[in-house]
Amino acid sequence: MRKPMLAGNWKMNKTRDEAIQFVLAVEGNLPASIDCVVCAPAIILRDIVKRAETLKVGAQNMNENESGAYTGEISPVMLKDTQVEYVILGHSERRAYYNETNEKINAKIKKALEFELKPIVCVGEVLEERETGKTYDVLKEQVVKAFDGVTIKNPADVIIAYEPVWAIGTGKTATTEVAEDACKFIRGVLADIFGKAVADELRILYGGSMKPSNVGELMSEPDIDGGLVGGASLKADSFIELCTTAAKVTA
Ligand SMILES: O=C[C@H](O)COP(=O)(O)O
According to the UniProt entry, where is the signal peptide (predicted)? Predict the structure, then answer.
């Protein structure tokens, strides 16, 4: 049984005070039947972890090395030290603006699992790839390369997020049919790699202009186990609504 998840990705938003206000506002208002997560900027993670009770906390990126001369980077050792549980890896913004390759993402996943950090691995096609019929090829390549040589001990600890790049921050949500079709396809690729039993236990999230008004419909689909939400996760009331709706439709 896959536990539904609603993860907010705050990206480069929120000061320490704003984050603390958010945590105080959502605590006590989140459903226990799903995993409610916020992935915050690294500099405020410790402040959030300190105040979070039912809310779970994740980072947005991680270097694949444990320490060394990598100016500006955050290591898995540092993330463990802040006691975060999750880390987003391979977000399309990291791939596009910081040249993260599938190979690098693969190294990060291995390192995260070595340090018992739960990776939320993002994959997704750009508009041109969708329009030229390459979506399946792109998703397959991203998934196969990301998980090359990865051993999954506990499927509950590895999350995949399908985020069509054309739907991120654009207000253009994928239709439920498009989102479900891609998530189902990804589960099939995961079954080829890890076997059906493991693939059936892995959580697959949808991300891309998810909001309180569409989370219910998207999460009613059989292969969509939750959401990775950017813009609509920034306000406490919207985050609570996302989580409570997600819990209701998956009850
Ligand atoms: O990680 C989250 C995604 O990039 C989605 O962002 P969005 O909900 O603002 O479209």
Answer: none
Tens-place pLDDT, residues 102-158: 999 999 999 999 999 999 999 999 999 999 999 999 999 999 999 999 999 999 999
Of the candidates 142, 158, 145, which has an alpha carbon nearest to the alpha carbon of residue 202?
Answer: 158
**Which residue out of 91, 129, 180, 221 is catalytically annotated?**
91
Cα-Cα-Cα-Cα dihedral sign, residues 188, 216, 235, 37? negative
Phi, psi of 144 (to 5 degrees): -60, -45
Q: Is the CB of 119 under 6 A from ligand 1?
A: no
Question: How far apart are alpha carbons 208 and 63 in whole angstroms?
Answer: 25
Other CB atoms closer than 10 Å to residue 184's CB: what's the count? Answer: 15
Tell me whether 0.95 is exceeded by the ipTM.
Answer: yes
216 is in an annotated binding site: no
61: Cβ below 6 Å to ligand 1? no
Q: What is the dihedral of CA 26, 175, 86, 201, to 10 degrees?
A: 120
The CATH number of the domain where 241 resides is what?
A: 3.20.20.70
